[in-house]
Write a structure and sequence with these properties.
This protein is mainly alpha-helical. It has a domain of 99 residues. The protein is built from 5 helices and 2 strands, in the order H-H-H-H-H-E-E. It has a two-stranded antiparallel sheet with strand order 1-2. Helix 1 runs parallel beside helix 3 and helix 3 crosses helix 5. The longest helix is centred in the middle third of the chain and has 23 residues. The termini are far apart.
């Protein structure tokens, strides 16, 4: 998944992703039908390589569809709009989380960050004390509290 987020996503990256996603050995020849379908999607229908990779990921990982050698990656065209909506929503939520993490406010001497719990299954601390600038000691003490 991480490889299909990159902006410089070309044919070599797409083929490597397809081999990995469809479990095609690197020793085996790349499927001719898939090669033709990629060319058709790019030349005739205006797909980008990244969009094809995202369509494959969406169909197999999100929709839980099955790849069939007989039909190749036919599903990329059929699920183009659904896949685009999925990726747009995912990117919107990620940007929203990034912006939420940057938000903070000041209450007197205290800075309050809006940080959500990220890891599931972990116990929340009993009580978090706000950090005050007066509490910070710049005396050069080591990590263990001794000079």
């Amino acid at each position: 998944m991480s490889t299909i987020k990159e902006d410089n996503y070309g044919l070599p990256e797409l083929k490597a992703f397809i081999r990995d996603e469809l479990k095609i050995n690197s020793d085996d020849p790349f499927p001719t039908m898939v090669d033709r379908q990629i060319a058709k999607y790019v030349l005739n229908e205006g797909f980008s390589y990244k969009e094809i990779g995202r369509g494959i990921y969406y169909y197999i990982e999100i929709k839980k569809g099955n790849y069939n050698d007989l039909y190749g990656i036919w599903f990329v065209g059929k699920y183009r709009k659904e896949s685009a909506r999925y990726w747009a929503e995912l990117e919107r939520r990620q940007e929203e989380r990034r912006q939420d993490a940057k938000k903070f406010e000041t209450k007197g001497d205290t800075v309050v960050f809006n940080v959500r719990q990220i890891l599931k299954g972990r116990k929340k601390p009993y009580r978090l004390e706000p950090l005050k600038f007066d509490d910070i000691d710049e005396g050069g003490e080591g990590d263990n509290g001794h000079k």
